Amino acid sequence: MIGRLFAFLLGTVLGVFVLLKARDLLRRATPEAVQERIGERVGEAQADLGQRVADFTREFTRARDEREAELRDALGMEDSDAAAEAGHVDETVRDQPVGERATEDLARARRAAER
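Given the sequence above, the corresponding structure tokens read:
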């Protein structure tokens, strides 16, 4: 008698547990629930991507500035803004578009390398 009662209670508990799990699984499989989970993951991915882009931009800018300083030091060039403030750059160079200045700087660097 006690064995039957125990088996009945155990079967009831297992049945309720399986029913609740099945209902939860079905609820998670509805189109609305799937859409919500996808939306959450896309939002997380967008936030992560934005952070990665910001980190990359910051690191790229830092590395670019360091490399530019190394190149200017190796070529014996002064910083254009600092040189302009000190009066080492004449008005014609300062007023040139950046592309022309870069071309002249490159030509000057090549001439220095050939020596």
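The chain has a mean pLDDT of 81. Try to locate this feature in the token string yourself.
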